[in-house]
Amino acid sequence: MAVMKVARLYDSSDIRFEDEPIPQVGPGEALVKTRACGICSGDVMGWYMKKKAPLVFGHEPAGEIVAVGSGVTDVRPGDRVFVHHHAPCFTCRACQRGEFVQCATWRSSRIVPGGMAEYFLVPKENLAGDTLRLPDDLSFADGSLVEPAACVVKSLRKSGLQGGESVFIIGLGIMGQLHVALARQANAGQIIGTDFVAYRRERAQQLGADISFDPAQGDVVEQLRAYTKGAMAEVVIVGPGSVEAMELGLKCVAKGGTVVLFTTSTPEARLAVSPYDLYFNEIRLIPSYSCGPNDTREALQLIRDGVVTADKFITHRYPFAALHDAYRTASEARDSIKTIIEFA
Fold first, then answer.
1. How far apart are the C-alpha atoms of 159 and 153, rounded to whole Å?
2. CATH number at 3-145+309-342
């Protein structure tokens, strides 16, 4: 039986290369040879990964189809594809409402064994529901950006962002940078960011942010108040999953504005809010979790249009054999934006 290498995470400090059989292809399924896979900010969130471990992590893969099962007609061996690790049923009430991530099929579906493997199996739900061919002019690295870009597409849609509105982005890692670029593409007015890392603040301004605040230089709320002449921000994107970041977001939003919670907190965390202030200031507090097939298609088009490209966002590329170095780079979150693994 043919075997492949996988990277199985037991803890954030314990990732092991292991051998396991290459998955067998069944009816309606496809086998993909992995060519690129991004390391998500969630992949380096220690508590979040520990509760899932052990697992072959990685959910931002792009690769080449090498085999298909009976009944598969939409793709064939040789096709270059992006595959979403979750796909909905399209028929349940959640799907009918466009709430794809609340679909039971979406929640239970996955690629096998995961993106950090030399090959992965695409079950029939994922193959039919959210596998996209990559145009010839896009690289596999470009393809690995579809999923993170799609999450931002959804976030900004849920924010209700309108042209000319001001946006404040807390945290300028890869997802913050994508929010900057997509907000600029959506004709936002002022785009403002904040991050402790100077490199990330500079990159955000290169991508279209008007200014980026350094929290070490003073109260961020007061910096925003001064910059906006008291107006604050009409849309606030809270990148980190900490209660402190969420509280900051609520302090920075304008009256009639929206705060988007982009990352989960720990299960036990509690956010204290003032219903009085939310009510009279008409503040919308909106979570945005992952993305659906509508979002991945829009993200792929943004990549084709050059709004999101590997050259703009991927700062570090490592071979699969150097996965531990790549994981460390992504975890340290210093002079890096996006780290990916490229497979031979």
1. 10
2. 3.90.180.10
Give pLDDT tens digits for 2-12. 999 999 999 99
CATH no. of 150-287: 3.40.50.720
Residue ranges per structural domain of the chain: 3-145+309-342, 150-287
Predicted TM-score of the model (pTM): 0.97
Instruction: Provide DSSP, 19-45.
Output: EEEPPPP-TT-EEEEEEEEE--GGGG-
Q: State the DSSP string of 72-87.
A: --S--TT-EEEE-S--
One fold for 3-145+309-342 and 150-287: no
Q: Rounded to an integer, what distance in angstroms lies between the CA atom of residue 27 and that of residue 11?
A: 34
Q: Are 249 and 161 in contact (CB under 8 A)?
A: no
The whole-angstrom separation of Cα 109 and Cα 332 is: 31
* pLDDT at site 149: 98
* pLDDT value for 1: 77
State CA 237 to chain mean position distance. 14
Residues written for the chain: 344
Strands (E), the chain: 3-11, 14-21, 30-38, 55-56, 61-68, 80-83, 119-122, 131-133, 167-170, 191-194, 211-213, 233-238, 253-261, 284-287, 314-319, 338-342
* Residue 317: band (very low, low, confident or very high) from pLDDT cuts 50, 70, 90: very high
**Residue 333 scores a pLDDT above 90:** no
Q: Report pLDDT digits (tens) over 142-179.
A: 999 999 999 999 999 999 999 999 999 999 999 999 99
State residue 21's pLDDT score.
98
Dihedral in degrees, nearest 10, Cα atoms 159, 309, 169, 293: 30
Q: Report whether 43 contacts 11 (CB < 8 A).
A: no
